[in-house]
Predict the 3D structure of the following.
Amino acid sequence: MPTTPSRIVSLRAAGTCLAVELTEPVPRVLHWGADLGELTPDDLTALSLTAEPALLNNAPDIARRFTVWPTEADGWSGTPAHHGHQAGTATAPRPTFTRATHHTNPDGGGELELHLTDTASALDITLTYTLDPNGILTADAVISRADSADSTPYDLAGALTLLPLPRRAAEILDFTGKWSRERSPQRHRLHHGAHVRDVRRGKPGVDSPHLLTVGVPGFGFRIGEVWAVHVAWSGDQRYLVEQLPEGAGVHASALGAGELLRAGEIRLAPGDTYRTPRCHFAWSPNGLDGIADRFHHHLRARPQHPRGPRPLVLNSWEGVYFDHDLGRLRALAERAAAVGVERFVLDDGWFSGRRADTAGLGDWLADPTVWPDGLSPLADHVRALGMDFGLWVEPEMVNLDSHLARTHPDWILGPAAGLGPTARHQYVLDLSRPEVFDHLLKSLDALVGTYDIAYLKWDHNRELHEAVHALGDRPAGHAQVEALYRLLDSVRQRHPGLEIESCASGGGRIDLGILDRTDRVWPSDCNDPVERQSIQSWTVQLLPPELVGTHVGAARSHTTGRVTSDAFRLITALFGHAGIEQDLAECAEEELTRLTAWSALYRELRPLLHTGRPVRADLDSEALVLHGVVAQDGSRALYSWARVATSPEGQSGRTRLPGLSADARYQLRVRTELGPPSFHQIASPAWLTAAQEDWLTLPGSVLATAGLPMPTLNPEQALLIEVRRQD
């Protein structure tokens, strides 16, 4: 039960801690990071005493503090927690603390709720911190305008949740990217000023910051203390880390995130409320893998998290594109079933007028010229083969060449002055209009119900530029995301067993807001395994592998033109929610045999791959990749050793297998079902030759401490190493 807290309260779980002092006028953050343990009254007094910074020259005459809701009233000259105005007045927020509730959970963590009020703007702010048992700290705020306030609306220009960082947090890692090259990491030192990543695409985008991480210089996958934040919102976003010369109280800098608000977007009249997106903060002493592990546990603990085996998928896109033909697709389904596919997904091209991407969006009925009897002949055939049936949709979009656009041009999102240029030959529907929402819900409900669809691949193939309502030219980005969430929730409520994939030109909408309503993401439209080695690794920085689609494409990549070996493509696609995306009719028998073996291997290993702890090795060369998944109890592991390019070094040297215990004893073997890789050597290391023939017993001190001399592979090659603990 909630209780009135003491002067200093803390939330503690999984080795991490948030400590807040309930000072006035605004509580301050004393500590966020490593668990401080059980503190006695004297310890708490010491923590408060050491939270007082020096009083600097040419500074406010009261020492600066970094509060839970920092503003200029605290002497904070950085980005404020919120700012706005009321017809040009009430521009200097001065919130004051009114009350708090605090409770802890028996299994660790708990909640701290703080209530603030700002008399000048008549705003009430409720800030909530929730620490889960896995160490993920979630912060969100509700900003409400008092019923008794002046009738002039308050224009909220920005609202962020911010937490402090120590001086040793001095290096930044976040992400950029483009279509088919999402989540490309970029690192640099933290300097004075603000490192700000604004997202103005109406969705997180293929260049999404994804997870803003700050750590001790040189942090890696397995080493270094790190702090991170992710904003769980599927629209415009703002991430920042900011360091001022005077610091942030006794801290050095601030880390924060929230929604990027457009001018005039949130206008709070008396009684109105704005809720910030949830921001998930994480700290780890064990590098990026430690952060990833916290997020994976957090997501796997959700009630709606997929529990059953993740079915092997075949998606028709790179196999047939828009060339839909019942006979061809039935034959494709038969080959898919023969190699072990469990879910057949019909991608773009099935609905009215859709022979290319220039027409048909918005008309969610099977094209009568291609499907005179609807989709049932294919869907029934797929189910008769033992697979479930999935379908591609893009409900938020419309082509001008469609019955919907011709009938309801006013439903398109855009300014009154007229629509701007198309992107992908399409525009965006204004989901916040009740008639648009109702139409889409009715269309999707009918599709899923008529064809007994088990899975929707929900795409979003353009950015939201000039996202305003035509009536009044008011900003619409926030309302669009809220309507999307309602639409997804409504479809799921009507069809509880339905699974939905979040796709947005590949990985353009990957965030924990959309993941609250979907069952997996499509991380990239690129199936080239060289690119996928990086894309999948960094997607797993936030999401566990069972939520990440990983498909095997054709030997020649449709997005890069690169030709790669079967084994390399198959091994790369194994580490996720696996699938196939190619025309199996063009596969030789030898390739079909390998696909069948890979399918069986996936079914054998997915209990480990989809529940275990992903691990990544810190290697000196970017040409080499060693990653794997270790069972939560440490009993089993599977590793991929891959080379994506040449390097000057002929020998890799002893390389540690991450995630194993030096005190245990293990057996390992090389899985050979997918065929041997191509080596750049005369003979393999002796241990590898032995492990290809049978299980090889080795002590954990060799595997985890000394390391194995790894074979020298040719570029674009990989091998699988399976490990089991010898009890």
Q: What stands out?
A: The two ends are 44 Å apart (CA to CA). The longest strand covers residues 154-165.
